[in-house]
Specification:
Length: 86
Amino acid sequence: MPRWECRYSPSEMMYLEVTATDDVRAYLDHNPGGADVWSFDRVLRGEADGFIRSLFGESALAGVKAEVTARVEDRVRGAERPPQPS
């Protein structure tokens, strides 16, 4: 699971993850249950761009978008494959 991190404050880390459940989450180390969550569709529409760019930087944004795009394309390719004979 791809993950990025940044120092949010002198005593806190913030993490950004592309999860196995097809979403992107950003959370503080002490509160993973309070994560900001974006679906892959929202990420691809740019709804998380400002948040990710301002906290994690341009390279993290590019990495998240590349990972999300690859997963969506893999899913589409899998759906397009004809069923295999048994």
